[in-house]
Amino acid sequence: PLFDSSADLQAHLEAAGKGICWAARGEQICGVALCGSDGVFGHLLQISVTPEEEVLAKDTKKRLIDRCEQACKERGLRGLRAASAGKEDEALFQGFGWTSHLVWSSPTDDRPHKKG
To answer: Is 79 in contact with 37 (CB distance < 8 Å)?
Structure first.
């Protein structure tokens, strides 16, 4: 999981993710996009949707990503970035017209705990 506890998630929503994390809902919540910021760029940390139909899932992701991108611009950030976790992510972002950049990450086992 991205956050170790609901308290960590709440702390993120009140700090680095304030105003740039979004939920999509119909009768209930059907998707979330969690973002953060380094003060220059917004970073899409995680996106998850529940619709079972592929077309609905793609549309929900697109609306969430568009909203995150707009919120980053309103905050004065240069744009929104997302790291790809695999071929499915690559196809999704390419389908939205995004360009790809190689991103490397350090091993997660040694990462420090988030401030909370």
So the answer is: no
**Distances from the Cα of 35 to the Cαs of 55, 79, 83, in angstroms?**
23, 12, 12
- Average pLDDT for 22-48: 90
Q: What is the pTM of this model?
A: 0.78
Q: Pick from 50, 97, 44: which is nearest to 72 by CA?
A: 44
pLDDT of residue 114: 56
Rounded CA-CA distance 10/12 in Å is 5
Count of all residues that appear for the chain in the document: 116
- Exposure pattern of 64-100 as b/e (b: 16+ CB <10 Å)? bbebbbebbeeeebeebbbebeeeeeeebbeeeebee
Amino acid identity, position 25 = R
